[in-house]
Structures are given as structure tokens and as C-alpha cells.
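To assess whether ligand presence alters the predicted conformation, the chain was also submitted together with magnesium ion. Input:
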Amino acid sequence: MSNNDIWCAGLQSIDNIGPKRAELFRRVGIDSLEELLHYFPREFEDRTETKAAEYYNDGEQVFVIGKVLSIEEKRLRLGLKITRVYFDDGFSGFVGVWYNQPYIARNFPIGKEVLITGRLKKIYKENQIQVKDYHFADEGNLLSKVGIMPIYSLTEGLSQQLVRKTIKDALNKEAIKIAEYLPEEILKRYLLPEIRVALNNMHFPSSLKELKMARRRFVFEELFLHQIIIEQIKAKSRVLPKNHTYSEIGILESTLLDSLPFRLTSSQEAVWDQIHSYMVSSSAMNVLLQGDVGSGKTVISILAMLKAVGQSYQAALMIPTEILAVQHYYSLKKYLEPLGVRITLLTGGIKKNEKPLLLNEIKEGKADIIVGTHALIQKEVEFKKLALVVIDEQHRFGVKHRAMLREKGDNPDLLIMSATPIPGTLAMTLYGDLDICTITELPPGRKSVDTELLDPSQIDLAYQVLRKEIAAGGQGYIVCPLVEDSEKTELQSVVKIKMNLESGILKDCRISILHGRMKNSEKDEIMLSFRQGLIDVLISTTVIEVGLDVPNASVMIITDAHRFGIAQLHQLRGRVGRSDKNSRCYLVSEEKESLALSRLQALCSTDDGFILAEKDLELRGPGDFFSSRQWGSHPFKVANPLKDVNALVYATKDAKNLIEKDLELGNPEHRFLAEEINRLKLTALLEENL
Ligand code: ADP
Ligand code: MG
């Protein structure tokens, strides 16, 4: 019998569970035995010791035992019904209180001994307990005894008692048949309880220590299974040979490096070395290039693309927005056309009659580097010999997009770039299938952006600074968040700000607006003028968020800043501080709510993206982090890869060892492990989320 059969059995295979009760369980998401047994308690109540009610303080959670003395039922106003049961506990006694449960009185024969948990209220001389849960002391069954009590999340009609009893029955009758699937040596090495014991102790531990041990097992198990998949994906993509080859030295790259107005930082050099060695190796490259905003990732990607072009291959650069694609297109042209590289731009905004020509250039190999948006993955786009795929600001694209672009070549190398730094351990879990290269320093001379939090009443301060800066030849941004997702109000707010400023504090300045409703050609024109210094102030919605590079801009004012998350604000702020000028960023917000305030304060305290990412996690918790648009869903129930760092490190090491020995988990001793991984459909989950 396989574990699968046991796990997947329906609830009705358990005694006393018929269709009606099964339906109750279904409402909390429990359909199968596996789901039931993994329905871990929300919390535990330590009922290892009782005290007389009078020894507890007012407001405390209590665990008491008493004999039923008498019962009283009263009708209050508004149809509220109250049942009061008086108990003798050998001291001053207590009163158990239930509201609107008319049937409750029947449960308490006089003289019966009852264990009660709840919250104590001391009213006059009475110890009143709002009863949360009760058990009869003489009920021979284990569940009603004192101990560490599991408390489950419930739904209407589903009681703690029913959940406890059902899980207990399932553990006693079914779970004992489950075969251990983790390798024995691992259990031994880390002193983890085996599966049946661990399951039992997650629900009914006889001590807190047992509970802790059980949790340790599941933490390890979740991370280990997850890392096995990652290691499998990694191992398989490593062995994919590629059909293009490189010579060690590229003339184009060194020519480019000589023509740049700056030298690579040593961190950029190290990263380029790494990427270069992946490219010249015989298997396809899979790299995530991380680096804070402004750390100079673009030039690395250009070097990689030149390497491909120098060997007569094509490279594609996919970018999330049209504005950015155009920006990259022009900067690539500037640097690369003198070297004879042919660059093509393909976006959704291309004119219909120009498109066939472009597509043809790409197909015939007349275009060397193809820059574009999502338009690149359209069916009609065919490449002659695509050897390198670069994806910028990858969190804007799904894995599917990544794969689709990649399929347009014959196992091309892949370089994805991200300015949203993720702490190392998290990167290991989320991007474990990629090799991670990190640019750890900013180009020299960069000054940190002075960031200040302003109340809306102080916004003129910011405008005055902006005005001074403009007088000295500088430029600036004013960013307004999208309010209520309405393009119309978005437009209104930017237009209004523009009018106010033009007739007031920024009179004589050249102000333009940029927003999502504009035609692409209009946006391009404005961006170009801004870059050429023909516009002093750009009032914009968040279309400028990623990647925009106008080094002369040195002031940013963000209105309603609390509407943005940390990562987004950090990205926005990264639009200034791109030269050796002193730059400033004003976060304008009237928000007084503490969490939003903490986010804004974090921004003021540092501009290190990695520190901010950690702060972000701390404020939001990993659940949110995973479930936010950027990261897909959280694959763990018990483990927390941010907190369980040690377990993650060991799980990764062990998973790697295991996969090295048995890539497909085909060895008989790994049968149950393989079955468990298949059953959880982890592979599919990961492919969706990476
Ligand atoms: P990001 O990593 O955010 O994509 P970019 O690649 O856009 O950053 O680079 C930011 C700015 O820094 C650009 O203007 C770029 O030309 C410049 N830059 C890149 N590398 C260096 C360097 N080593 N020294 C000086 N400036 C650099
Ligand atoms: Mg960039």
C-alpha cells in the first residue's frame, strides 16, 4: 500500500464521519485525510495544571476545575439569553457564563465535575468565566484530560471537540499505516521524530518539547522537499548542452570598455567575469543578476550581448515598459552602433506597416540585438540564431514569459536582472534554480539621497528646494500615486499639480506631465525632452518607476507616499542620485498609522536596497512577501525560510547530496520520498512561482 492511498482517503473513511460532518470539514478546506492531519492547531492551551479561580487575576485566561452547584437561565433585553452555571472549586467558587446557548444547561447535571477554560472577570465578589471550552473530568477519553490542548480554527457548526476527536481517530486508525518517507539517516542526524510521531505530536503533544520536536521535523521536511525539486531543476538545466560556442576573447567587449566614460567597479568586473565564464561554458547559462538601483547592471548586460553579437549570434533584451525599452534602445545605439552592431526595437507601439520589415530583419539575422517589450514573445517573432536572452526588471514578467522568449532560440543563455534585492536565504529558495550574481557596490562618487518625510502642509519646502535646483541647472520629478486605480482621477491630480505650480511657486519653470493615458509616442517625446534638459520638472504617475536614467535629475517629491510599498519607493527614489550631485527625495504624507509610518521612516534611514528589503520583510512578514505580486504564493505551511535559516542551509545541502546520488529518486529506498514529492505537485508549484 502506498502512502498516497492513505493520504488521499476521504474523511468518511473515519468512524463517525458521515456526509454532513464531512461537509463541515470541507468548509475549512479539509477533504482528505492528508488535509485533516495537516490541519495543524492555530494555538495550544497549556492545561497541565489547574488552579482555583480566585488565584487568577482579572482578565486572565484560566483553567479551572469545579463541581456543578446550580444553574440559572435569564433572558436579557434584545432577546439575549444568558446561562449561568455555579461551580464549587473548594475555594470561593466560580460562575461559568454562556450566551445564547439555550441547550447548554442540559449538559450540566448537578454534582458533575467539569474542566473549564476561558477568560476570568472579577465582578464584585464573583469570579465570572466567559467559557471558551469545557470537558467533563470523568470522561474516560484522553482528549478531555488535562494536558496541552490544541485549538483549531473553526467554522460554524464545527466544534473543537469534533475536530480533536476526528483527528485523534484518524491518527489512531489510519495514520499509523503511513510509511516514513524522509531518509533514515537524516532523521537520525538531526534527531527528528518519524512521521507518525511527528503528526501525533503536532496535534496532541504531551509536552511543549514534543511539540517543538514535531515542528522541527515539518520545518525541515518542507524545506528539504522544496530544495530537492530546486536541485533537480538545477541539475537538469545544467546538463542541457547548448549549441552555440564562444571563444574566450571578444574584441567588441574590450572596445566597448575602452569607449565608456567610466571604468567598471570591481564588483561589476567580478560579476562580468562570472557571467563570462558561464557563457563560454558548454551548458546553458541561467543567471540572476542582482544589484541595487543604479549599481550599473545595464552595462553588464551590454557586455554579454556584445559577446553574443561578436560571435555572429543574436541577443534579445526584454523590458517591461515601452518607455524603458525606448530608453535602452537609444543608449544601446549610442554605444554600439559605432561598433557596427545593428539594433532593432520591437514594441507594441510599432507602426503596422513597419512591422513586417522589422520581423524580417530579426528572422534573417540582420538585426543583432533586439530590444523590446512583451511584443518579443509574440508568435510571429522568429529569430535566426538567438543565443542570449536578457530580461530586465524580471519581477514584472512571469516565468512563462521567460520560458517563451527562451524557446525562440536553441537553448540560449539566460540573464535576468533584478533591482528588487532579496535576502540571500530567500533567493536560495525562490531562485534556487538560478546562479545568482550580485553587484555589491555602487559606482564611485554616488552620494546617498537625502530623504525626508514631510507633512502635506510643508510641501512648499520641497518645492522651494526644487526651484533652487532648477535655477542651478538641475531637474526634478514629482510623483503622484494612482488614486483608486482610476485613470481619470490620476490625470486630474497631475494636471492640477501642474497648474498650481505653474501659476505659483514654480513660475517660469518648464513643467510637463507624464501619465499612463498618453500615447506611447507622446511619452517618448516627453522623456526625450526631459533627458535633453528641455523640461525642468516632470510630474508623473508611476510610469517612471523602473530603470529610468536621467543623471541630471536630483530632486524627487513623492506625494501620498504612504500609498507605495518600500520596494516601490526605493525604486522611485533610485531615479535621483544618479550622478555626483547631491540629491534629495521628499516623501510627502499625512499618514499617521504606524506601519505606513515605519515604512517611510525606513526609507529615510537608509538607501541600501538590501537593508530595505529585509526591513520590508520584517514589517510585512514572509507570508505577505510571498503573496505579494512579486513573489507568487508561499509554498510553506510550517517553515519560514527567513527565520529557519539554519534548517534551510542543511536542507539545501542534504537535498543536493541526495540529487547527486539519485537524480530521479529512482532508488527503491527513495520510493516513498518520490511519491510524496509527486503527490504534493511541488514541481508544478515551483514552476509557477519561480
Ligand atoms: P541599474 O543597475 O539600476 O540598471 P544602470 O545600469 O542604469 O543601473 O546604471 C546607472 C547609471 O550608472 C548609468 O547612468 C550608468 O551609465 C552609470 N554607471 C554604470 N556603471 C558605472 C561605473 N562603473 N562608473 C560610473 N558610472 C556607472
Ligand atoms: Mg536597470
